[in-house]
Amino acid sequence: MLMPDPLSQTFSALADPTRRAILAELARGERTVNQLVEGRGMSQPAISKHLKVLQRAGLIERGREAQTRPCRIVPEGLEVARRWIDRCRADWEEAFGRMDALLAAMPARQGEGDQP
Description:
Blueprint: H1 6-14, H2 17-27, H3 33-37, H4 44-56, E1 60-62, E2 71-73, H5 79-105
Antiparallel strand pairs: 1-2
Helix pairs in contact: 1-4, 2-4
Domain HTH arsR-type: 1-93
GO molecular function, one term: DNA-binding transcription factor activity
Organism: Aquibium oceanicum
């Protein structure tokens, strides 16, 4: 089976609102699976499946402390998405800069605004 590239895995993991909510909670600190289940109206197995997707995408890691497996966010996991977004932003800014220069070089139209 062909493994998806890291960027696709990241965006696929972030596409689900439950996983984004889990990441937002983990951004505030480490949580156990049971703590993540509380207040979500989802079963522990369902949350565990979401955690596996986040872990495969490199967005979280799971530790081992006695009987619990605390989850923590891996901020570097978002780096692949940030780099891609930054490249897109640079391309868009360059294209808009060229368009601005082209529009500035165009002569003003005579009589513009005279007609209804």
